Amino acid sequence: MTRENPLFPAKSLDLRQIVYEKIKEAIVEGIIKPGEKLSEVELANSMAVSRTPVREAIRQLAKTGLVTLTPRKGAFVTLPTLEDASALYELRANLEMFAVSLIAMAPPMEELAKFREIFESMDNDTSPGEYLVQDRNFHNFLYRASGNRFLSGVLLDILDMINLYRPYSLAEHNYLKALSEGHIAVIDALLDKDGERAKREMKEHIDMTRTGVEAYLQNNPAKDLS
């Protein structure tokens, strides 16, 4: 199935937010690649808008970490680094372990069962794009299901950076089945209302993802944009 390019012309009263969301989606989906320079003119032409909302969107994206502003050179999609990946995944692991410990006290059985069916159907022949969509959906669901709005808020704040790194987790090894089984192990622990087991399974799953990201970045170090 052909993926729709988010950079089609924007038509909305809330133009600034629409332009921001379109550029962010293009970055997270890999349509605009890490290290690629963001041209205000080209982006404005693609979306049939003026350069002003594009400029504002780029500044807003720089605050999230998705874009790097380099003096006298311009704006670039942030190149993930090994150091940043390690720090981000350590934070993510601890936050998501806390989230599943909260969910285990009153797990939403029906929703968890649906995700279990989805991941049970996946193997190493599954499209990486399909896996990444469901992976994002599952973890976003966990953030909301935690019931702690402050925890959810922190996770959502770093979600864009997490999504930027996600494709790298699949770049080095074909282990979609193992990653899917990691999700299932977390789900089974939650269905059993076993918070400690859910935390262990979540840590193991994120550590596996982190290993894939770090392996890719070690073999493909970021270039200095300064």
From TrEMBL:
<keyword id="KW-0805">Transcription regulation</keyword>
<keyword id="KW-0238">DNA-binding</keyword>
<dbReference type="GO" id="GO:0003700">
    <property type="term" value="F:DNA-binding transcription factor activity"/>
</dbReference>
<dbReference type="InterPro" id="IPR000524">
    <property type="entry name" value="Tscrpt_reg_HTH_GntR"/>
</dbReference>
<dbReference type="Pfam" id="PF07729">
    <property type="entry name" value="FCD"/>
</dbReference>
<dbReference type="InterPro" id="IPR008920">
    <property type="entry name" value="TF_FadR/GntR_C"/>
</dbReference>
<keyword id="KW-0804">Transcription</keyword>
<dbReference type="InterPro" id="IPR036388">
    <property type="entry name" value="WH-like_DNA-bd_sf"/>
</dbReference>
<feature type="domain" description="HTH gntR-type">
    <location>
        <begin position="13"/>
        <end position="80"/>
    </location>
</feature>
<dbReference type="GO" id="GO:0003677">
    <property type="term" value="F:DNA binding"/>
</dbReference>
<protein>
    <submittedName>
        <fullName>DNA-binding transcriptional regulator, GntR family</fullName>
    </submittedName>
</protein>
<dbReference type="InterPro" id="IPR036390">
    <property type="entry name" value="WH_DNA-bd_sf"/>
</dbReference>
<dbReference type="Pfam" id="PF00392">
    <property type="entry name" value="GntR"/>
</dbReference>
<dbReference type="InterPro" id="IPR011711">
    <property type="entry name" value="GntR_C"/>
</dbReference>
